[in-house]
Amino acid sequence: MVRAFLSELLKLRRWSVLAGAGVMIAATAFIASLTFHQITSGATGSEIAPLIQAFPTTQGLITVIGQGRSLIIAIALIMVTANLAAEWSQGTLRNLLVREPGRLRLLAGKMLALLLFVTISATLTLAISAALIIALAQGQGVQTAAWISAEGMRAFLSFLGNEVLCLVGISLLGMLIAVLTRSVGAAVGVALVYVLVPEGLLAMVWPEGSKWFPVRVFNFLPGSTVPAAVGPTPPQGYTAALLVALLWMTGFIVVSAVVFRRQDVNA
């Protein structure tokens, strides 16, 4: 597993993978700065009202940088699913299994490397976006004492930790889809469609049941840190949402392992 992990880390240095992390950082920073300018310019509306209300509080910083969460999730999902599914599409899986015949060790090593990359990318994204917003605020004379206070830093770290948990869950879902589809185009397409569409439609017709579905549960975790401003607050409570999220993650791992171990590899 260690050999597979180190091998995957080398592959993650490719420009196409690093470009994905760069897009995540740049786009999130842009969305955060745009949100900051909307708030400070006196914009009004029902959507921006909770942001304005939270802006001067200890949650103000994460309220602003958290507006790019959907983009972070989408990019992380694409990076994981495309990277895994490419082993089938490019016909490299057989060669990998010759070097590492233990299929589960290979899958575990690849996923640990991908999860590490996603975690580092998300952490850098939020840290750089936070530094940018603080610099913009100080340049315009906006008070940032509440943001960088001890309570503000605790809120930021709590948000960061829950965002990483959310991305781990999303990445494991991407792993399952990649293992099932075995095609880059199909994996990315199915993953994005599932994350963006079905659970939202289900929430409209079955709100009580939809709150236990994976993507919504993963999204509840960061939303618990900044109610109504960044993500949906967990209606079942944070502890219940966390436990269900961990159960979904475990399920994705088990099903992916069983399917991957039994698959025929012909190319």
What does this structure look like?
The chain is globular. The protein has one domain. Helix 2 packs parallel to helix 7 and helix 7 packs antiparallel against helix 8. The model has no long low-confidence stretch (mean pLDDT 89). With 267 residues, it is mostly helical. It has 13 helices and no strands.
Strand-helix topology:
Elements: H1 2-11, H2 15-40, H3 49-54, H4 60-65, H5 69-89, H6 93-99, H7 103-139, H8 150-181, H9 184-196, H10 198-205, H11 207-210, H12 214-223, H13 238-262
Helix pairs in contact: 1-7, 2-5, 2-7, 5-7, 5-8, 5-9, 7-8, 8-9, 8-12, 8-13, 12-13
Q: Name the helicity range.
A: over 70%
Number of distinct beta strands: 0
Main sheet overview: none
Proportion of residues in β-strands: under 5%
Count structural domains.
1
Assign the structural class, choosing from mainly alpha, mainly beta, alpha/beta, alpha+beta, or little secondary structure. Answer: mainly alpha
Mean pLDDT, as a whole number?
Answer: 89
Contiguous runs where pLDDT drops below 50 for at least 5 residues: none
Order of helices and strands: HHHHHHHHHHHHH
Shape, per Cα inertia axes: globular
Straight-line N-to-C gap: 22 Å
Radius of gyration from the alpha-carbon trace, in angstroms: 20 Å
| Oligomer state of the chains in this structure | single chain
Count helical runs. Answer: 13
